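Good morning,

Both structures are done.
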Amino acid sequence: MLAAVVSDLHLGTHSGADLLRRPEVQARLFDALADADEVVLLGDTVELRDDSLAESLERALPFFEALGAALGSRRLTIVPGNHDHRFAEDALRRASHLGLEGRFEVRPGDALEPVVRCMGGSPVVLAYPGVRVREDVYATHGHYLDCHSEAPTFECRARAAVERVRRIDREGYRSPEDYERALAPIYRLIHWGVQPAAVRAAAHAGRRLVRRWERPRAAPGARVRFGVPAMEQVVHNLGIDARHVLFGHLHGHGRWETRSGVELVNTGCWVEDPVSISPGTCVLVPDDGPPRLQSVQ
Protein backbone atom coordinates (compact mmCIF):
# COMPACT_ATOMS: atom_id res chain seq x y z
CA MET A 1 0.00 0.00 0.00
CA LEU A 2 1.15 3.53 -0.79
CA ALA A 3 -0.57 6.61 0.62
CA ALA A 4 -0.10 10.15 -0.68
CA VAL A 5 -0.70 13.01 1.75
CA VAL A 6 -1.36 16.51 0.40
CA SER A 7 -2.17 19.57 2.48
CA ASP A 8 -3.17 23.22 2.22
CA LEU A 9 -4.57 23.37 -1.30
CA HIS A 10 -6.80 26.36 -0.42
CA LEU A 11 -8.85 25.75 -3.55
CA GLY A 12 -10.74 28.79 -4.82
CA THR A 13 -8.97 31.62 -3.03
CA HIS A 14 -9.92 35.15 -4.10
CA SER A 15 -6.28 36.08 -4.56
CA GLY A 16 -5.66 33.38 -7.18
CA ALA A 17 -2.72 32.08 -5.13
CA ASP A 18 -3.99 28.48 -5.20
CA LEU A 19 -1.72 26.66 -7.63
CA LEU A 20 -4.15 23.87 -8.47
CA ARG A 21 -6.46 26.16 -10.43
CA ARG A 22 -3.75 25.91 -13.12
CA PRO A 23 -4.37 22.85 -15.34
CA GLU A 24 -0.67 22.13 -15.81
CA VAL A 25 -0.06 22.04 -12.04
CA GLN A 26 -3.12 19.89 -11.49
CA ALA A 27 -1.83 17.44 -14.09
CA ARG A 28 1.54 17.19 -12.33
CA LEU A 29 -0.15 16.47 -9.02
CA PHE A 30 -2.31 13.73 -10.52
CA ASP A 31 0.80 12.17 -12.07
CA ALA A 32 2.43 12.13 -8.62
CA LEU A 33 -0.67 10.39 -7.21
CA ALA A 34 -0.81 7.77 -9.96
CA ASP A 35 0.70 4.96 -7.86
CA ALA A 36 -1.02 5.84 -4.59
CA ASP A 37 -3.57 3.40 -3.20
CA GLU A 38 -5.05 6.13 -0.99
CA VAL A 39 -4.93 9.93 -1.07
CA VAL A 40 -5.22 11.97 2.13
CA LEU A 41 -6.15 15.65 1.85
CA LEU A 42 -4.76 16.96 5.12
CA GLY A 43 -6.75 20.11 5.81
CA ASP A 44 -7.38 23.54 4.31
CA THR A 45 -8.33 21.80 1.09
CA VAL A 46 -11.02 24.35 0.21
CA GLU A 47 -10.82 28.03 1.13
CA LEU A 48 -14.08 28.55 3.04
CA ARG A 49 -13.24 32.01 4.38
CA ASP A 50 -13.62 34.00 1.17
CA ASP A 51 -17.26 33.52 0.18
CA SER A 52 -20.44 31.70 1.08
CA LEU A 53 -20.18 27.94 1.36
CA ALA A 54 -22.08 27.49 -1.92
CA GLU A 55 -19.83 29.89 -3.85
CA SER A 56 -16.64 28.41 -2.40
CA LEU A 57 -17.73 24.91 -3.33
CA GLU A 58 -18.71 26.02 -6.82
CA ARG A 59 -15.10 27.06 -7.45
CA ALA A 60 -13.63 23.93 -5.84
CA LEU A 61 -15.87 21.15 -7.20
CA PRO A 62 -14.27 20.95 -10.67
CA PHE A 63 -11.04 19.90 -8.96
CA PHE A 64 -12.84 17.10 -7.11
CA GLU A 65 -14.49 15.92 -10.30
CA ALA A 66 -11.06 15.68 -11.92
CA LEU A 67 -9.59 14.02 -8.82
CA GLY A 68 -12.40 11.44 -8.75
CA ALA A 69 -11.74 10.61 -12.41
CA ALA A 70 -8.01 10.25 -11.66
CA LEU A 71 -8.48 8.06 -8.55
CA GLY A 72 -11.21 5.76 -9.83
CA SER A 73 -11.97 3.24 -7.08
CA ARG A 74 -9.11 4.34 -4.82
CA ARG A 75 -9.98 5.91 -1.50
CA LEU A 76 -9.89 9.61 -0.65
CA THR A 77 -9.62 10.58 3.02
CA ILE A 78 -10.46 14.19 3.88
CA VAL A 79 -9.11 15.62 7.13
CA PRO A 80 -10.41 19.19 7.67
CA GLY A 81 -8.18 21.97 9.01
CA ASN A 82 -8.89 25.47 10.25
CA HIS A 83 -9.87 27.08 6.90
CA ASP A 84 -12.27 24.23 6.08
CA HIS A 85 -13.29 23.33 9.63
CA ARG A 86 -16.90 23.69 8.46
CA PHE A 87 -16.52 20.29 6.75
CA ALA A 88 -16.10 18.67 10.17
CA GLU A 89 -18.78 20.56 12.08
CA ASP A 90 -21.81 18.51 11.01
CA ALA A 91 -20.18 15.26 12.13
CA LEU A 92 -18.80 16.81 15.32
CA ARG A 93 -22.28 17.97 16.35
CA ARG A 94 -23.50 14.37 16.09
CA ALA A 95 -20.50 12.86 17.89
CA SER A 96 -20.62 12.15 21.62
CA HIS A 97 -16.83 12.08 21.92
CA LEU A 98 -13.85 13.20 19.85
CA GLY A 99 -10.75 11.04 19.90
CA LEU A 100 -7.55 11.18 17.89
CA GLU A 101 -8.88 9.21 14.92
CA GLY A 102 -12.54 9.97 14.45
CA ARG A 103 -14.00 8.58 11.21
CA PHE A 104 -17.39 9.96 10.33
CA GLU A 105 -20.25 9.33 7.93
CA VAL A 106 -21.04 12.14 5.50
CA ARG A 107 -24.83 12.49 5.46
CA PRO A 108 -27.17 14.25 3.03
CA GLY A 109 -27.17 17.97 3.76
CA ASP A 110 -23.69 17.99 5.29
CA ALA A 111 -21.32 20.66 4.04
CA LEU A 112 -19.03 17.98 2.62
CA GLU A 113 -21.77 16.12 0.73
CA PRO A 114 -21.28 17.96 -2.63
CA VAL A 115 -17.62 16.96 -2.59
CA VAL A 116 -18.52 13.31 -2.02
CA ARG A 117 -20.98 13.41 -4.92
CA CYS A 118 -18.36 14.93 -7.24
CA MET A 119 -15.91 12.14 -6.48
CA GLY A 120 -18.07 9.69 -8.42
CA GLY A 121 -17.07 6.11 -7.67
CA SER A 122 -14.17 7.01 -5.39
CA PRO A 123 -14.91 6.12 -1.76
CA VAL A 124 -14.60 9.15 0.52
CA VAL A 125 -13.81 9.05 4.24
CA LEU A 126 -14.11 12.03 6.60
CA ALA A 127 -11.57 11.84 9.42
CA TYR A 128 -10.97 14.36 12.21
CA PRO A 129 -8.79 15.62 13.81
CA GLY A 130 -6.43 13.12 12.24
CA VAL A 131 -5.95 9.70 10.70
CA ARG A 132 -3.48 6.88 11.17
CA VAL A 133 -2.01 6.40 7.70
CA ARG A 134 0.14 3.50 8.85
CA GLU A 135 0.57 1.89 12.27
CA ASP A 136 3.50 4.19 12.99
CA VAL A 137 2.37 7.21 10.92
CA TYR A 138 -0.26 9.67 12.18
CA ALA A 139 -1.46 12.65 10.12
CA THR A 140 -3.34 15.77 11.21
CA HIS A 141 -3.65 19.26 9.76
CA GLY A 142 -1.75 20.85 12.63
CA HIS A 143 -3.99 23.78 13.56
CA TYR A 144 -3.97 22.69 17.21
CA LEU A 145 -0.40 24.00 17.39
CA ASP A 146 -1.84 27.54 17.44
CA CYS A 147 -2.68 26.90 21.09
CA HIS A 148 1.05 26.80 21.87
CA SER A 149 2.60 29.01 19.19
CA GLU A 150 3.71 32.57 19.83
CA ALA A 151 3.64 33.39 16.12
CA PRO A 152 2.29 36.91 15.45
CA THR A 153 -0.87 35.75 13.69
CA PHE A 154 -4.52 36.67 14.16
CA GLU A 155 -5.55 33.14 15.13
CA CYS A 156 -2.88 32.84 17.84
CA ARG A 157 -3.99 36.20 19.25
CA ALA A 158 -7.66 35.22 19.01
CA ARG A 159 -6.97 31.91 20.75
CA ALA A 160 -5.40 33.78 23.65
CA ALA A 161 -8.56 35.93 23.89
CA VAL A 162 -10.81 32.85 23.92
CA GLU A 163 -8.67 31.34 26.67
CA ARG A 164 -9.24 34.41 28.81
CA VAL A 165 -12.99 34.55 28.14
CA ARG A 166 -13.54 30.83 28.68
CA ARG A 167 -10.96 30.61 31.48
CA ILE A 168 -8.98 27.89 29.70
CA ASP A 169 -5.72 26.93 31.37
CA ARG A 170 -2.79 27.21 28.93
CA GLU A 171 -1.44 24.00 30.47
CA GLY A 172 -4.77 22.23 30.29
CA TYR A 173 -4.77 20.95 26.71
CA ARG A 174 -4.90 17.16 26.98
CA SER A 175 -7.49 16.02 24.42
CA PRO A 176 -8.85 17.02 21.00
CA GLU A 177 -11.94 18.31 22.79
CA ASP A 178 -9.78 20.69 24.83
CA TYR A 179 -8.27 22.13 21.64
CA GLU A 180 -11.65 22.38 19.97
CA ARG A 181 -13.04 24.33 22.92
CA ALA A 182 -10.46 27.07 22.33
CA LEU A 183 -10.28 27.06 18.54
CA ALA A 184 -13.69 26.06 17.14
CA PRO A 185 -15.41 29.34 18.19
CA ILE A 186 -12.80 31.30 16.21
CA TYR A 187 -13.31 29.14 13.13
CA ARG A 188 -17.09 29.44 13.32
CA LEU A 189 -16.93 33.20 13.73
CA ILE A 190 -14.63 33.64 10.71
CA HIS A 191 -16.62 31.27 8.50
CA TRP A 192 -20.08 32.57 9.35
CA GLY A 193 -18.84 36.13 9.03
CA VAL A 194 -18.57 35.75 5.26
CA GLN A 195 -21.82 33.87 4.67
CA PRO A 196 -24.25 36.84 4.42
CA ALA A 197 -23.51 38.83 1.28
CA ALA A 198 -24.44 42.05 3.09
CA VAL A 199 -21.52 41.82 5.52
CA ARG A 200 -18.98 39.99 3.36
CA ALA A 201 -17.31 43.16 2.10
CA ALA A 202 -16.81 44.34 5.67
CA ALA A 203 -15.40 40.93 6.63
CA HIS A 204 -12.95 41.05 3.72
CA ALA A 205 -11.90 44.59 4.66
CA GLY A 206 -11.26 43.41 8.21
CA ARG A 207 -9.18 40.53 6.98
CA ARG A 208 -7.09 42.83 4.79
CA LEU A 209 -6.34 44.92 7.86
CA VAL A 210 -5.32 41.79 9.74
CA ARG A 211 -3.03 40.69 6.90
CA ARG A 212 -1.52 44.18 6.77
CA TRP A 213 -0.76 43.86 10.48
CA GLU A 214 0.61 40.32 10.14
CA ARG A 215 2.76 40.75 7.04
CA PRO A 216 5.68 42.76 8.47
CA ARG A 217 5.76 40.41 11.45
CA ALA A 218 5.71 37.22 9.37
CA ALA A 219 9.01 36.89 7.56
CA PRO A 220 9.36 33.75 5.40
CA GLY A 221 9.96 30.83 7.74
CA ALA A 222 8.63 32.55 10.87
CA ARG A 223 5.55 30.33 11.10
CA VAL A 224 7.75 27.25 10.84
CA ARG A 225 10.19 28.53 13.45
CA PHE A 226 7.38 29.09 15.97
CA GLY A 227 5.22 26.22 14.76
CA VAL A 228 7.51 23.21 14.99
CA PRO A 229 8.05 23.44 18.78
CA ALA A 230 4.32 24.07 19.17
CA MET A 231 3.52 20.95 17.15
CA GLU A 232 5.90 18.96 19.34
CA GLN A 233 3.83 20.15 22.32
CA VAL A 234 0.62 18.97 20.64
CA VAL A 235 2.10 15.51 20.03
CA HIS A 236 3.15 15.30 23.68
CA ASN A 237 -0.14 16.61 25.09
CA LEU A 238 -2.30 14.27 23.02
CA GLY A 239 -0.06 11.26 23.59
CA ILE A 240 0.18 10.54 19.86
CA ASP A 241 1.85 7.15 19.67
CA ALA A 242 3.59 7.27 16.29
CA ARG A 243 7.14 7.30 14.99
CA HIS A 244 6.20 9.81 12.28
CA VAL A 245 3.64 12.63 12.58
CA LEU A 246 2.62 14.39 9.36
CA PHE A 247 1.11 17.88 9.48
CA GLY A 248 0.54 20.96 7.34
CA HIS A 249 -0.80 24.38 8.40
CA LEU A 250 2.57 26.20 8.38
CA HIS A 251 2.88 26.56 4.58
CA GLY A 252 6.41 25.27 4.77
CA HIS A 253 7.92 21.83 4.39
CA GLY A 254 10.61 19.81 6.09
CA ARG A 255 11.30 17.20 8.75
CA TRP A 256 12.39 17.51 12.37
CA GLU A 257 13.15 15.13 15.23
CA THR A 258 11.51 15.82 18.60
CA ARG A 259 13.20 15.28 21.95
CA SER A 260 11.12 12.11 22.40
CA GLY A 261 12.25 10.66 19.05
CA VAL A 262 9.12 11.41 17.00
CA GLU A 263 9.77 12.65 13.47
CA LEU A 264 7.61 15.62 12.48
CA VAL A 265 7.10 15.96 8.72
CA ASN A 266 5.48 19.09 7.33
CA THR A 267 3.67 18.36 4.09
CA GLY A 268 4.00 21.83 2.53
CA CYS A 269 1.29 23.75 0.71
CA TRP A 270 -0.15 24.54 -2.72
CA VAL A 271 -0.37 28.32 -2.60
CA GLU A 272 2.00 31.07 -3.66
CA ASP A 273 2.10 33.95 -1.19
CA PRO A 274 4.77 35.94 0.66
CA VAL A 275 4.96 33.53 3.61
CA SER A 276 4.73 30.16 1.82
CA ILE A 277 7.96 28.22 1.31
CA SER A 278 8.52 26.14 -1.83
CA PRO A 279 4.87 25.31 -2.53
CA GLY A 280 3.90 22.18 -4.46
CA THR A 281 4.95 19.30 -2.21
CA CYS A 282 3.37 16.13 -0.87
CA VAL A 283 4.37 13.21 1.35
CA LEU A 284 4.36 9.62 0.14
CA VAL A 285 3.92 6.91 2.77
CA PRO A 286 5.02 3.45 1.57
CA ASP A 287 4.44 0.10 3.29
CA ASP A 288 7.50 0.59 5.45
CA GLY A 289 10.37 2.99 5.93
CA PRO A 290 10.14 6.73 6.56
CA PRO A 291 7.60 8.89 4.71
CA ARG A 292 9.08 10.61 1.65
CA LEU A 293 8.73 14.34 1.14
CA GLN A 294 8.42 15.00 -2.59
CA SER A 295 8.28 18.15 -4.70
CA VAL A 296 5.73 18.01 -7.51
CA GLN A 297 6.54 21.37 -9.09
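Second structure follows.
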Amino acid sequence: MELIHLEKGEIIYMARDSIKYVYFPLTGMFSLLSTTESGSTVEVAMVGSEGIVGLPVVLSMDKVPYEVMIQLTSDTLRIEAEILRKEFDRGGRLHELMLRYTHVLITQISQSAVCNRFHTVEKRLCRWLLIARDRVNSNTIDLTQEIIAHMLGIPRTGVTMAAGALQRAGLIRYSRGKIEILDYQRLRDASCECYEIIKEEFDRFLSE
Protein backbone atom coordinates (compact mmCIF):
# COMPACT_ATOMS: atom_id res chain seq x y z
CA MET A 1 0.00 0.00 0.00
CA GLU A 2 1.09 3.58 -0.59
CA LEU A 3 -0.03 6.83 1.02
CA ILE A 4 -1.25 9.52 -1.40
CA HIS A 5 -2.89 12.95 -1.08
CA LEU A 6 -6.02 13.74 -3.11
CA GLU A 7 -7.47 17.24 -3.49
CA LYS A 8 -11.13 18.20 -3.35
CA GLY A 9 -12.76 17.90 -6.77
CA GLU A 10 -10.36 15.30 -8.20
CA ILE A 11 -12.01 12.53 -10.23
CA ILE A 12 -10.31 9.18 -9.63
CA TYR A 13 -12.73 7.08 -11.68
CA MET A 14 -15.26 7.78 -14.40
CA ALA A 15 -18.14 5.35 -14.82
CA ARG A 16 -17.02 2.15 -16.58
CA ASP A 17 -13.32 2.84 -16.01
CA SER A 18 -11.14 -0.18 -15.27
CA ILE A 19 -10.27 -0.44 -11.59
CA LYS A 20 -6.51 -0.17 -11.19
CA TYR A 21 -6.39 0.76 -7.50
CA VAL A 22 -8.50 0.26 -4.39
CA TYR A 23 -8.54 3.17 -1.92
CA PHE A 24 -8.73 3.20 1.89
CA PRO A 25 -9.38 6.84 2.96
CA LEU A 26 -7.72 7.98 6.19
CA THR A 27 -9.23 11.48 6.09
CA GLY A 28 -11.68 13.38 3.91
CA MET A 29 -14.54 11.95 1.90
CA PHE A 30 -15.17 10.30 -1.47
CA SER A 31 -18.47 10.63 -3.38
CA LEU A 32 -19.89 7.89 -5.59
CA LEU A 33 -21.92 9.54 -8.36
CA SER A 34 -24.45 8.11 -10.78
CA THR A 35 -24.37 10.01 -14.09
CA THR A 36 -26.84 10.24 -16.98
CA GLU A 37 -25.97 10.55 -20.68
CA SER A 38 -26.88 14.24 -20.51
CA GLY A 39 -24.31 14.80 -17.75
CA SER A 40 -26.69 15.12 -14.81
CA THR A 41 -25.41 13.51 -11.62
CA VAL A 42 -26.68 12.45 -8.22
CA GLU A 43 -24.67 11.10 -5.33
CA VAL A 44 -25.52 7.52 -4.35
CA ALA A 45 -23.05 7.06 -1.48
CA MET A 46 -20.28 8.69 0.57
CA VAL A 47 -17.13 6.93 1.77
CA GLY A 48 -14.93 8.15 4.61
CA SER A 49 -12.30 6.62 6.86
CA GLU A 50 -14.58 3.68 7.67
CA GLY A 51 -14.68 2.47 4.10
CA ILE A 52 -13.20 1.30 0.83
CA VAL A 53 -13.42 2.62 -2.74
CA GLY A 54 -13.07 0.06 -5.52
CA LEU A 55 -15.17 -2.74 -4.06
CA PRO A 56 -16.25 -4.24 -7.42
CA VAL A 57 -12.84 -5.94 -7.65
CA VAL A 58 -13.72 -8.31 -4.79
CA LEU A 59 -16.92 -9.22 -6.63
CA SER A 60 -14.85 -10.31 -9.66
CA MET A 61 -15.71 -7.13 -11.60
CA ASP A 62 -12.95 -5.03 -13.14
CA LYS A 63 -14.90 -1.85 -13.95
CA VAL A 64 -16.47 0.76 -11.67
CA PRO A 65 -20.20 1.43 -12.32
CA TYR A 66 -20.16 5.00 -11.02
CA GLU A 67 -18.03 8.14 -11.05
CA VAL A 68 -15.81 8.61 -7.99
CA MET A 69 -14.92 12.15 -6.91
CA ILE A 70 -12.97 13.51 -3.95
CA GLN A 71 -15.58 15.47 -2.05
CA LEU A 72 -13.28 16.59 0.79
CA THR A 73 -9.46 16.61 0.58
CA SER A 74 -8.18 13.18 1.56
CA ASP A 75 -5.03 11.41 2.67
CA THR A 76 -5.59 7.91 1.39
CA LEU A 77 -3.93 4.53 1.30
CA ARG A 78 -4.16 2.80 -2.05
CA ILE A 79 -3.22 -0.66 -3.24
CA GLU A 80 -3.17 -2.25 -6.69
CA ALA A 81 -6.52 -3.90 -7.32
CA GLU A 82 -5.03 -7.22 -8.41
CA ILE A 83 -2.95 -7.53 -5.25
CA LEU A 84 -6.00 -6.90 -3.09
CA ARG A 85 -8.11 -9.35 -5.09
CA LYS A 86 -5.53 -12.12 -4.56
CA GLU A 87 -5.46 -11.46 -0.82
CA PHE A 88 -9.26 -11.36 -0.69
CA ASP A 89 -9.48 -14.71 -2.49
CA ARG A 90 -7.41 -16.33 0.24
CA GLY A 91 -10.35 -15.91 2.65
CA GLY A 92 -9.88 -14.98 6.29
CA ARG A 93 -10.44 -11.70 8.10
CA LEU A 94 -9.98 -9.35 5.13
CA HIS A 95 -12.46 -11.40 3.10
CA GLU A 96 -15.04 -11.21 5.90
CA LEU A 97 -14.63 -7.47 6.52
CA MET A 98 -14.85 -6.51 2.85
CA LEU A 99 -18.00 -8.55 2.31
CA ARG A 100 -19.61 -6.97 5.37
CA TYR A 101 -18.63 -3.49 4.20
CA THR A 102 -20.12 -4.30 0.79
CA HIS A 103 -23.43 -4.91 2.54
CA VAL A 104 -23.15 -1.57 4.37
CA LEU A 105 -22.42 0.29 1.12
CA ILE A 106 -25.33 -1.39 -0.69
CA THR A 107 -27.61 -0.30 2.17
CA GLN A 108 -26.47 3.31 1.75
CA ILE A 109 -26.93 3.22 -2.04
CA SER A 110 -30.40 1.67 -1.89
CA GLN A 111 -31.57 4.01 0.87
CA SER A 112 -30.29 7.03 -1.04
CA ALA A 113 -32.42 5.97 -4.01
CA VAL A 114 -35.51 5.73 -1.79
CA CYS A 115 -34.76 9.08 -0.17
CA ASN A 116 -34.21 10.91 -3.46
CA ARG A 117 -37.52 9.60 -4.79
CA PHE A 118 -39.89 10.01 -1.85
CA HIS A 119 -38.64 12.63 0.61
CA THR A 120 -38.62 16.42 0.67
CA VAL A 121 -35.53 18.45 -0.16
CA GLU A 122 -35.24 19.58 3.46
CA LYS A 123 -35.28 16.01 4.80
CA ARG A 124 -32.84 14.89 2.10
CA LEU A 125 -30.48 17.73 3.02
CA CYS A 126 -30.67 16.74 6.70
CA ARG A 127 -29.87 13.14 5.81
CA TRP A 128 -26.97 14.21 3.59
CA LEU A 129 -25.45 16.50 6.22
CA LEU A 130 -25.71 13.84 8.92
CA ILE A 131 -24.07 11.14 6.80
CA ALA A 132 -21.31 13.56 5.76
CA ARG A 133 -20.77 14.43 9.44
CA ASP A 134 -20.41 10.75 10.31
CA ARG A 135 -18.02 10.05 7.45
CA VAL A 136 -15.60 12.88 8.37
CA ASN A 137 -16.28 12.82 12.14
CA SER A 138 -16.78 16.58 12.28
CA ASN A 139 -19.67 19.00 12.71
CA THR A 140 -18.08 21.37 10.17
CA ILE A 141 -18.31 20.52 6.46
CA ASP A 142 -16.43 22.64 3.92
CA LEU A 143 -18.79 22.49 0.94
CA THR A 144 -20.74 25.08 -1.03
CA GLN A 145 -24.49 24.92 -1.60
CA GLU A 146 -23.74 24.49 -5.31
CA ILE A 147 -21.78 21.29 -4.64
CA ILE A 148 -24.48 19.96 -2.30
CA ALA A 149 -27.13 20.65 -4.96
CA HIS A 150 -24.97 18.71 -7.42
CA MET A 151 -24.79 15.80 -4.98
CA LEU A 152 -28.54 15.78 -4.32
CA GLY A 153 -29.40 16.19 -7.99
CA ILE A 154 -31.56 19.29 -7.43
CA PRO A 155 -31.37 23.01 -8.38
CA ARG A 156 -29.21 25.17 -6.15
CA THR A 157 -32.25 27.26 -5.23
CA GLY A 158 -33.77 24.17 -3.58
CA VAL A 159 -30.71 23.74 -1.37
CA THR A 160 -30.64 27.48 -0.58
CA MET A 161 -34.25 27.40 0.60
CA ALA A 162 -33.81 24.21 2.64
CA ALA A 163 -30.53 25.36 4.19
CA GLY A 164 -32.10 28.72 5.01
CA ALA A 165 -34.95 27.02 6.85
CA LEU A 166 -32.53 24.86 8.85
CA GLN A 167 -30.40 27.89 9.69
CA ARG A 168 -33.40 29.92 10.88
CA ALA A 169 -34.39 26.98 13.08
CA GLY A 170 -30.92 27.01 14.65
CA LEU A 171 -29.91 23.56 13.38
CA ILE A 172 -27.03 24.68 11.16
CA ARG A 173 -24.95 27.76 10.38
CA TYR A 174 -23.89 28.44 6.81
CA SER A 175 -21.32 30.95 5.60
CA ARG A 176 -18.63 31.20 2.91
CA GLY A 177 -18.81 27.63 1.69
CA LYS A 178 -18.85 26.13 5.16
CA ILE A 179 -21.75 24.42 6.93
CA GLU A 180 -21.60 23.90 10.68
CA ILE A 181 -24.05 21.57 12.43
CA LEU A 182 -25.17 23.35 15.59
CA ASP A 183 -27.72 20.88 16.96
CA TYR A 184 -27.05 17.28 15.96
CA GLN A 185 -30.06 15.77 17.74
CA ARG A 186 -32.58 18.22 16.32
CA LEU A 187 -31.09 17.81 12.84
CA ARG A 188 -31.44 14.06 13.30
CA ASP A 189 -35.07 14.51 14.35
CA ALA A 190 -35.71 16.67 11.27
CA SER A 191 -34.26 14.05 8.93
CA CYS A 192 -36.16 11.13 7.41
CA GLU A 193 -35.87 7.49 8.49
CA CYS A 194 -33.22 6.91 5.80
CA TYR A 195 -30.47 8.30 8.03
CA GLU A 196 -31.41 6.01 10.92
CA ILE A 197 -31.35 2.94 8.66
CA ILE A 198 -27.95 3.83 7.23
CA LYS A 199 -26.49 4.77 10.62
CA GLU A 200 -27.66 1.53 12.19
CA GLU A 201 -25.84 -0.53 9.56
CA PHE A 202 -22.65 1.54 9.85
CA ASP A 203 -22.70 1.37 13.65
CA ARG A 204 -23.14 -2.39 13.58
CA PHE A 205 -20.27 -2.79 11.11
CA LEU A 206 -17.91 -0.56 13.10
CA SER A 207 -18.78 -2.01 16.51
CA GLU A 208 -18.25 -5.59 15.39
